[in-house]
Amino acid sequence: MSDSNSTPRKSDYLRPVIAGVLLISLCLAFLFLLNTYSTLNVSFLLNNSFLVPAILLQVLASLLFIFAWKALLSSQAKTHFSFAQCTAHIGITLLGKYLPGKIWGLLGRTYLLNIKGLTKSEAASLLLADQFITFLTGIAIGVVALAAFFSVEIAIFLAAATVVTIAIVGYYYASIMSYLLSYLGTWLKKISKSFELHDVNIKRHSFYLSASLYLLHWLCTATVVILLFHPLLSDNLWLNSTLIMAAIPLAMLSGFLALWAPGGIGVREAVIVAVLMLSLPLELSMTIAVTYRIICILIDLSLGAYTLIYYSITEPDILKSKQ
Predict the structure, then answer these.
(1) Predicted structure pTM score
(2) Which of the pair, 73 or 47, is modelled with greater confidence?
(3) How far is residue 94's CA from residue 298's CA, in Å, rounded to a whole number?
(4) What residue intervals traverse the membrane (predicted)?
């Protein structure tokens, strides 16, 4: 290869930076429009005494998300993936979910694993485990939190059952996946055959570590919203907090399943509003839902821009279209 191909030019990473800044600026502008079109006063958020802790907690939640993926990658010893590479994997997935069909981000992550020496089967097994753990932990947090709204005793029982369930599922994960891939319909069989998913090999310690990190990620993410709206929730902080703790993971997972909605737009907000209206008025529920959408877009674009910059600098050929 020539030197021009191996040495990145300024334009290779300047354009992603500019695009990322412009998109983030548009999102910020949209956030300020909430002053006019919703009950939210932006100055309320900016003057919130919990704003800085909320921002720091959101950074921690994003780091936990990345470390959960890195924990799964430790299941294979063929290639070591740095934290920077794992962050880029997450970034490409978050960008891809805004394309119709939702799977493009996952396919992009598969490609990035393939070029580092992992087989199609190994990459698919890792992604399958990642999505399985995401849904398992998200549903667990959502159900336990929703139960806490009605009964603390039931919530405690479900929390204990969740710990036991995750322990059992992690121990028998390979057998469970093999069974599902063998018996759950022709569509899943075709997917399994296409990606050569003959052996789902995820180390147990990697599964447990990833699941633990995902549980913390969901809790931190929901707590960010609670901190931002704390003054408006303080009349009944416990009940309102349990609803937010339930709404965030359930909405995220529902949005992902809505293949027709890029980024889960509309579906995620509908779930949040439906859950929050068990205790909160419609206007406040909608404001929380829209604000959380803006937060998600900012995170997605930030990590997406990082991904483009990272590969523009380290492996520019990946981002170049074939002539």
Answers:
(1) 0.83
(2) 73
(3) 11
(4) 12-34, 54-73, 126-150, 156-186, 207-232, 238-260, 267-284, 290-313
